UniProtKB/TrEMBL annotation:
Keywords: Signal. Residues 1-21 form the signal peptide. SUPFAM superfamilies: E set domains. This is Chitin-binding protein. It comes from Wenjunlia vitaminophila (Streptomyces vitaminophilus).
Length: 196
């Protein structure tokens, strides 16, 4: 009886593995070039990050940015209170990727699960941006400096986009990457601190 019960439990646990492994297989991803706040946290580059250290790919919120989407001050976390640490400017001390205005740059997303995609858009903060304040729409240039249409196609698990870093910027800025999903009401958000 004990052998049968043990074999049954092992069999059930093996059957359950694929279900557990795929239950979170929705569209998920983050930018690692320039490195996003969620990836900085997952890499241990910042402390007191909360749950995002285990789920850098899960910064998902309502799509429609900038007219819709997460509320001001909650953009870097995608409006998701579980990841509110990403919205904390931490006095402007987030590690920043060095960039130069006008340089060609390869933006990189890592996807843990792909999804039918509308587009990827990249926004940058305006001149006079204060890195000690939470991100708001008024702090961003209103037009994305790079838009990559996907027209409902499913991207690969590593997505790269070539673009040009906007000229005329100085000091610390923030680049917001928005991956808009075609067949859900959501998008993924990634805030990357950069230093000109």
């Amino acid at each position: 009886m004990r052998k049968k019960l043990g074999a049954t439990l092992v069999g059930l646990s093996l059957i359950g593995l694929p279900v557990l492994a795929t239950s979170s297989a929705q569209g998920h991803g983050y930018t690692d070039s320039p490195i996003s706040r969620q990836k900085v946290c997952a890499n241990g580059g910042m402390t007191n990050c909360g749950e995002i250290i285990w789920e850098p790919q899960s910064v998902e919120g309502p799509k429609g940015f900038p007219s819709g989407g997460p509320a001001d001050g909650r953009i870097c976390a995608g409006g998701n209170s579980r990841f509110a640490q990403l919205d904390d400017p931490r006095g402007g001390t987030w590690p920043a990727t060095r960039v130069s205005g006008g340089q060609s740059y390869t933006f990189n997303w890592r996807l843990t699960a792909a999804h039918a995609t509308t587009d990827f858009k990249y926004y940058i903060t305006k001149d006079g941006y204060d890195p000690t304040q939470p991100l708001t729409r008024s702090a961003l240039e209103t037009t994305p400096f790079l838009t990559v249409p996907f027209n409902g196609k499913i991207p690969p698990y590593t997505v790269t986009h070539s673009g040009t870093i906007p000229s005329g910027k100085h000091g610390k800025h923030l680049i917001l990457g928005v991956w808009t999903i075609a067949d859900t009401g959501n998008a993924f958000y990634a805030c990357s601190d950069v230093q000109f």
